[in-house]
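> Could you send the GAF domain-containing protein prediction when you get a chance?

Sure thing. Input:
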Amino acid sequence: MFEPTAYNATKEKNYQLLIKQLEALIEDEPDIIANLSNSSALLNQFLDDVNWVGYYLMKEGELVLGPFQGLPACVRIQIGSGVCGTAVSKQTSQRIENVHAFPGHIACDANSQSEIVVPIMKDKQVIGVLDIDSPSLNRFDDMDQQYLELFIETLEKYI
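Output:
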């Protein structure tokens, strides 16, 4: 029989291991593109039921596609537009159960059903976002958000 508490304990331990793997992967590399590339690959390998994992970076007042794993994506996103642009304008993570119910959702991949976006901060400014899409509705929960935010906090130390 499925035990949610045992599942959550395992999920939490896996996320803790993921954070350690991230630190080991990027601690000696100063290049942001290399670190974003490897961290997106690490997340894509670790997470199940996702179809896109990557970054958008702030450039000249808009988000521009950065390193990612998945199908080709939208190249530029205006601040305040879609889930990524909303995460920037509000400077908070956005966890969307059903992207089709999100006003102004930008559909880069028609298979995406749910999404989580975590802002990347430096000197109290958003410099980019982590964007993860899933082909399943309501894929991301509180624990995913908590640990993906911790993942980004860890990454921010090396930026």
